Amino acid sequence: MKRxxxxxxxxxxxxxxxxxxxxxxxxxxxxxxxxILERHDLMGEKGEDIPELVGNILLGVTPEEKLEAELExxxxxxxxxxxxxxxxxxxxxxxxxxxxxxxxRNKKRKERLKNAPGTESEEESSDEYSESx
Length: 133
Fold this sequence. Notes:
This protein is an all-alpha fold. It has a domain at 6-96. The chain has helices at residues 6-15, 18-25, 27-39, 50-59, 67-73, 78-93, 97-115. The longest helix is centred in the last third of the chain and has 19 residues, at 97-115.
């Protein structure tokens, strides 16, 4: 899982649509994640990185489609990773899916433009979520 600094977090957070900002700090989100961790016996060290992973997805740092693979990389068995991933998707990600898709599309578009010949360099480019959400 990619780690970001506190400064990077706030820079990305400020560019998010309100729905994603709200979802990141929502008590409903925290309760949903805690409930999922408890149901799957992932409290404590086993699941300590899961809230950060969900935050990274909401920030656009980690693509949503990598959720299960990231859970497996944390040492969670495939079947449990699928179950946990489905529950996280339904409880936390699905309600803000449209904005998540916009962020990922913008990120992919920016990467394509950055790598295309004759386009602006990374230093010249504007913020990561430059397209109006």
